[in-house]
Amino acid sequence: MAVPIPVAAFQLAGYRQAVANTLYLNFTQTVYRSKFIIVLLWQLLLIVPMAVAQGQMYLDGDDPEQDCGLTLSGKVLDHDTREPLIGATIYIEELQRGTLSDEYGNYHFHHLCRGSYTLKVTYIGYVMERPTLRMTTSTVRNLTLHVDARQLKQVVITGERLTEEVQSAGTLSGRELETTRGLSLAESLQNLSGVSTMQTGPTISKPVIHGLHSNRILLLNNGVRHEGQQWGAEHAPEIDPFVASELKVVKGAAGVRYGADAIGGVVLVEPKALPDTAGVSGELNLLGSTNNRQGAVSATVEGKPASIPALSWRLQGTAKRAGNARTADYYMQNTGFQELNFSGTLGYKKENYGAEVFYSQFNTKLGILKASHIGNLTDLENAIGRERPEQTSYDFTYTIDRPYQDVSHHLLKTKAYWDTGNAGRLEFVYGLQRNIRQEYDLHRASSADPELTLDITTHTTEAVWEHAPVGNLTGSAGVSTIYQNNTYQGRYFIPFFRNFTAGAFVSEKWRKDRLQLEGGVRYDYKKLNITKRERNSDIIRPEYQFHNVSGTLGALYDVGYHLTFGLSATSAWRAPGANELFSDGVHHGSASYERGNRDLNSEQAYNFEASVTYYGNQRLNGKLSVYNNFINDYIYLAPVQPPTLTIRGAFPTFEYKQADAIFRGIDLDLEYRFTPQLYLESRTSIVRARNLDLNDHLVGVPADRYNNMLRFDTDRLAGIGTSDTYFALGGTYVAEQTRVPTVAEQDYMAPPAGYFLLNLEAGTTVQLGRQPVELGITGSNLLNTAYRDYLNRFRYFTDDMGRMLLFRVKLPLNFSGR
Amino acid sequence: MNKIFRPYLTLALFGSLVAFTSCDDHDHEPHDHEEELITTVMLTMTPQDGGQAITATYRDLDGDGGQAPVYTPENVVLQAGKVYNTTITLMDESHHEEDLTAEIREKGSEHQFFFEPSPATLLTVTTTDRDSNGRPIGLENTIQTSSNPQAGKLRVVLKHQPGGLKTDNSNISTGGTDADVQFNITLQ
């Protein structure tokens, strides 16, 4: 559709905020009316080109083609806030008739005949909706629209304030998500404040939230907690970000709603809702990059048969291939990867009930930097002493050699829900996952088999009842279970185990006027059964049981003047993992001997957060959040004496221990608009972590991170037929980590120096005939800076990646022939 | 309602079946299998001028960690000023005795032994075997002991130098370490 010129979008954003504020500030009716007229004007501007394009068009009442006497009426509302949308366009495609909603959001069509109609509902700053309806009698139908996050960023903050939890969260969707296409899940998220990435060379990256990662954060893939071997620092999440239309990060402990392990936060990977209008459509994404010469194709096809309107479906697939990645000066040997993923969704949706089946498969083969496979401490010291990794070739190739990982992940999800009307909504989700991880080592490989295969199957169930609002109270209650079975073949790393977890929670939110209060409580029980072969060949079968209560409390107060204060106290717990209890061996790549501790207790996190949001302003908007995450019995690897003697010499030895720890920090998001099109976006993430028992810093905590981008958005470039054009230039500065443990040596190399990376984003949409084509480019490390990151586990061996330009082409497809 | 849930139940059931055919075999017991464990390094030193062969053995039967490795004898006694023909044997004795020496010899172009006596004058090691590229391997050597009776150490390091890392210039710091053991030596 024709998109209004950005000035309109901006003014409307302010306008919409004004409407929101009438509730609080009692704007006078005059202001209201004058604004209404402005909006009406903009809407007319929008309609006129449409009318021209359509050839002929009638505003309602002008010249009805048929007169059968039925009336269609209702309100146009914001989906989230339920506020009426004034001046929205409602257009009946079959009749080529349109109208505008009035100042109370009402619309009406008269003299309609019986039959099926497709409505096209548009409003500036909102995503267009195309509901279909069947008219047999006069009908009242309310139409709801979703805010278009891509167009009105400052409004998104407002929306969150009104609808979400007090606890801070960051979201990537729309264009912000598009610019990360081609990157891994963790790399996509690292531009959010409070989020960083832990890498193992260029092929493996994991998200870090407020300094915590791996089994201390939870990934929800399409509503199912992602379960693989996530405890491992070099085990990247097996999720295709192309599935997502939104990535959301809940920062800080969030155990009540999401269950065990959400100590540091939660990443939610949300796919787009299934189509709700008949027809077949899709999109094709093509990507290519410099540096590792990555090529990727991702395609989606979705539809809804006109004959069975309750049914809808989607098929999606992604294929990626990349060769050796390049630092500023050389290619890193054996750092290519391949990925082949696909998913399918089938939905059945009636007015009050529905069901959905989702299946996805993720397959990857990823090379591990050859020089990182070392034998002992001397080898590691040699590697640290080298300028560049010891390689037989510093050239490019797509070939993946040993050592490499071959991982596949299957997810089957089924969901059913029932809207009871009076009692609320009941939803049931069952997830089945199987994760098979094969690791191929470098050493004298005598067979083609992997040296280690880990195989874990997980069943998850969740039943949630979201009760209908009672007065000002909304909320939900639910029960969930997890059953897990882990086996392995090859060398010992973690034992066989079975794990059963059950939990129940209640969470309520009360909102009145300017105040929002929320509270929740959860109880979890976990049973862990281990089967392990001891060194003397005896089989032991210890059983562990854990009980835990988590809670959450939060308050949000809107003081007026576009200012909101939030306070929250949340908690979460985590049982020790099988690796922490039972690992026993040399950790390849880090030249250390890791020993489990069979007496570990569960750890419990208490997260306190205070936030200030300044929103809805013409120039400056932002959010400041300060958090304190106390973790009781934090499990960490502590150096112990004596070193372990092996045939390859003595290894420094680490054992899992527990201590109270604290992770505290600041997240700051700022946006400053110089003009409606030109604005500065700034994100700051600062974390401090301490071992309170030793009164020492913790190892592996992200360094201070500052991200600033100057963005310019424009709809049309003069004289060229493009739309949605944007350009952004900025950089990321990561400081040197100066806070490292001093009580006992825990690292073999001092943290690397701070670094600055210059980045660029640009994109536009061109129209080739009737086909829109979205073009984009994302450039990172434009200055080709040679650097090493403290959170890259391969910083002992090699520099990080040099300059990379990622080119994207996206074709939205419509097979319905319209 | 029944009608709706039937297809999804069928699918779920089908999916579970597919996923389960090979995974819930928990009651079979784990068998650890380290692909390329070396537990034993044995030096057999035969005096060139005849006499009893002397062996020096490093053994760590349970692999990395667990029981500490054992040197037999704790102190290896050699004659001062003598030449010994020395062969190295590598074994995996963790489950049953498996001689790995032939495998190393076969992949000699990716492996090399290095010897570091301390003090450096304690003895001189000359490698006599060659890989397919004519470079030393180090499974066969001669040891010339110093003529001065003294005590010292001999460090024996086996390096894995795959994929072309082993060259005429490669040295003890090239590649990854497969074995790094140190024998106490007394010259009489």
TrEMBL record, chain A:
GO cellular component, one term: cell outer membrane
Annotated TonB-dependent receptor-like beta-barrel domain residues: 343-781
Keywords annotated in UniProt: Cell outer membrane, Membrane, TonB box, Transmembrane, Transmembrane beta strand, Transmembrane helix, Transport
SUPFAM superfamilies: Carboxypeptidase regulatory domain-like, Porins
InterPro entries: Beta-barrel_TonB (IPR000531), Beta-barrel_TonB_sf (IPR036942), CarboxyPept-like_regulatory (IPR008969), Plug_dom (IPR012910), Plug_dom_sf (IPR037066), TonB-dep_rcpt-like (IPR039426)
Family: Belongs to the TonB-dependent receptor family.
Membrane spanning residue stretches: 36-59
GO biological process, one term: siderophore transmembrane transport
UniProt protein name: Iron complex outermembrane recepter protein
Gene Ontology terms for molecular function: siderophore uptake transmembrane transporter activity
Record membrane topology: Multi-pass membrane protein
Domain TonB-dependent receptor plug per the UniProt entry, residue ranges: 166-266
Transmembrane among keywords: yes
Location within or outside the cell: Cell outer membrane
Automatic annotation (TrEMBL), chain B:
PROSITE patterns noted in UniProt: PROKAR_LIPOPROTEIN
Keywords, ordered alphabetically: Signal
Signal peptide (from-to): 1-21
Protein name: Type 1 periplasmic binding fold superfamily protein
Domain of life: Bacteria
